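Posting this for the archive.
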Amino acid sequence: MFFFLSKTLSYLLKPIVIIIGCLVLSWVLKSARWKKRLFLGGMVMLLFFSNEFIANEFMLAWEVKVTPFKDVQKTYEYGILLCGAAKSEVGPNDRVYIGSAADRINHSLQLYKMGYIKKILISGGSGRLIDIGEKEASQLSSLLQLMGVPQDVILVENDSRNTHESAMEVKKILENLTTPGQCILVTSASHMRRSLACFAKVGWPVDHFSADVITHNRNFSPDVLLIPKSESIGIWNVLLKEWTGYVAYWLAGYI
């Protein structure tokens, strides 16, 4: 039930859904006062959520900062790669399709190639409300092997459906093999805060290596300050999803 509710709520709290809801209600309601309020509210939210400067500032405050490779101080036994990069139901199933979170894979590969991690544990099964049978961890394993990572240094956990379950399953796999201090977690910078909290909650506090940075350096140009952008709404989609997830996990006792 928690899995269903958390996924449903993240869909409903998308800015575009809220804005359209306000505009539709402003059209169908009979009260002139509420028509005006909802229409103005929808337009104000549209301007707010599409502003690049505002979206970037909020995400800058939320993302866990990236660690330069030169600042990785030791070699880890395991790099824990959280799934969420592959796309499903796309084209023929004779290949792996990667979405906007591709840097999770690229940076895990780079950590391995540069000698910072000895093995890669990929964690994540199907996070969809309707399981169509695809297991992302297995897909990413095959992709990393195509990139030159030997199969015998890749571990696959493909039963978990969310970050909380990933933390529990990863601990089960690794607790007899290594210690938390020998593990480094790789996931999106926007997702790292919730992920680290989940791993700490199950008693497996790990180091972190953020990927898939959404933000850019602070910029005060007129283009950034004044021109509405659909990409900014996309940033808010991610941010509201993470905020909702964090609160939901806290209420459920997962963090």
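The mean pLDDT is 91. The two ends are 18 Å apart (CA to CA).
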